[in-house]
Automatic annotation (TrEMBL):
Coiled coil: none annotated. Its main location: membrane. Its EC number is 3.6.1.27. GO terms for molecular function: undecaprenyl-diphosphatase activity. The chain crosses the membrane at residues 45-63, 91-113, 119-137, 189-209, 221-240, 252-270. It is a multi-pass membrane protein. This is Undecaprenyl-diphosphatase. Catalyzes the dephosphorylation of undecaprenyl diphosphate (UPP). Confers resistance to bacitracin.
Amino acid sequence: MEELFELLKYAFLGLLQGFTEPIPISSSGHLEIAERLFDLKIEGLSFSVLMNFASLLAVLLIYRSDLIRLTVNGFSYVTNRNPESKSEFMFIVYLIIGTIPAGVLGILFGDYIEENLTGMKVVGGTLVITGLALWYIRNMKGRKNEERLSFKDALIVGFGQAVALIPGISRSGATIVAAMSLGMKQETALRFSFLLYIPVSVGTMLLGASDIINDPNFSDLFVPYMIAFMLSLISSYFSLKWLMNIMAEGNLKYFAYYCFIVGPLVFFFLG
């Protein structure tokens, strides 16, 4: 019975993390809520690293054609200076620039955030902030496409991603809000947000590889971890597809409503 509960616990957390990772309601915040509500505690970082990898694979699958296009055209511009490929090359440069703020601020303030900006009151409050930000952009219809992006745009969206180091602040929400506030089209904002997720996620994987290797419980938890991994991959894939449809229909406001309801409940009843 205990082994069955262990499997169900990891299956649930895998589904939860995968489903909430792409949509703008904060996967880290919801994992903290789940741990509190159901008294589920995951020791070490191996689980979070694996779930991050599962979501990364889902993003790679969905944006594989964009990644191939950017790689081929970016290489073409570097080698042949093909002017038709310049916009793709610059888009890669902007992704690199946008990655810098989260990397730098994560190194400088990661430990402080982990030690001081946790708990249900923080998650409840930041969910409300996420909701307010989503409400702010709910009716925006930008005109800026990939060819009109700038270094300034990349940095500002990158700082949005860095803010999401705080639990309860959605990474996708923060980057999409920043991008659309800068006048990007919804499709461009969404693509930039999730392509920007790739280098950060790869960095997390590389930094967390030692946690998996040195995890004394990894062999014992291999089966639960793999079940959670597959469920996280599947739920991330369909959740991101759902978000694409939501944005195409201009319905981000529904995520704002959700944050306005859940945030205060978490703050007052679990904090």
